[in-house]
Specification:
Elements: H1 2-16, H2 24-41, H3 47-65, H4 68-80
Helix pairs in contact: 1-2, 1-4
């Protein structure tokens, strides 16, 4: 998953030639913290509700911080990326 986050960040960096703000270790730390919160939410809520909430937040953050072209390119990167499921087929 860190690769996926780095790929999006790299693609966005290439658009404006600004250096990447976070390294892979920092992104992994953020990912692990957010994932731990999601696992806690799964004790009370269905996985799909949590995933939809995180997706809605992510899309809104991207829409707020990117211009229209960058947003569309980020969506393309997401759509073209292979994401592997977690080892357990059901987390809840």
């Amino acid at each position: 998953m860190t690769f996926f986050m780095l790929q999006i960040q790299k693609d966005l960096k290439m658009k404006d030639n600004k250096p990447m703000k976070h390294n892979s270790k920092e992104l992994e730390e953020i990912y692990n913290d957010v994932f731990a919160a999601a696992v806690e939410y799964m004790e009370e809520y269905e996985v799909q509700a949590i995933a939809a909430t995180y997706m809605a937040i992510a899309m809104r953050l991207y829409k707020t911080t990117l211009d229209d072209k960058e947003y569309e390119e980020m969506i393309e990167t997401v759509m073209e990326s292979e994401v592997k499921p977690y080892k357990e087929s059901k987390l809840h």
